């Protein structure tokens, strides 16, 4: 059965929903460089809470994008890495991240123009 994300019942929409989450994108992008432990990942993704990072990793693991490995140390050490599927996605995310960074000034200028126009409309 072919998938069509524009169709209401397409399961691919769930994947898009997951990828619309900034934390998921940032985690995947961070893991692009290689395997990281939980706290390393938390430092890498500045601003993410422990709870949100844990939830995000579980969702990405469930989707087959991230692999979790528990090492038999005291205390247990947990490492996260991209799967083959996750690596292909990370390449796409890299392009999206680069686009956002490269176009940030233009986006901010557009936002400022819009905000001035909306303020003038409300005031007028």
Q: If you had to describe this structure to a student in words, what would you say it looks like?
A:
By secondary structure, the protein is mainly alpha-helical. The protein is built from 6 helices and 3 strands; from the N terminus they run H-H-E-H-H-E-E-H-H. The chain has helices at residues 12-19, 22-31, 38-44, 50-62, 84-102, 104-123, and strands spanning 36-37, 66-71, 77-82. The protein has a 3-stranded antiparallel beta sheet. Helix 2 (22-31) crosses helix 5 (84-102). It is extended.
Offer a concise description of the structure.
This protein has 124 residues and is mainly α.
Quickly list its features.
3 strands; mainly alpha; 11% strand; 124 residues; Arc Repressor Mutant, subunit A; transcription; 6 helices; three-stranded antiparallel β-sheet
CATH fold description: Arc Repressor Mutant, subunit A
* CATH class placement: Mainly Alpha
Can you write the helix and strand succession as a string?
A: HHEHHEEHH
Q: What structural category arises from helix and sheet content?
A: mainly alpha
- Report strand %: 5-15%
Helix content: 55-70%
> Which ranges are low-confidence, i.e. pLDDT below 50, for 5 or more consecutive residues?
none
Give the arrangement of secondary structure elements:
Elements: H1 12-19, H2 22-31, E1 36-37, H3 38-44, H4 50-62, E2 66-71, E3 77-82, H5 84-102, H6 104-123
Antiparallel strand pairs: 1-3, 2-3
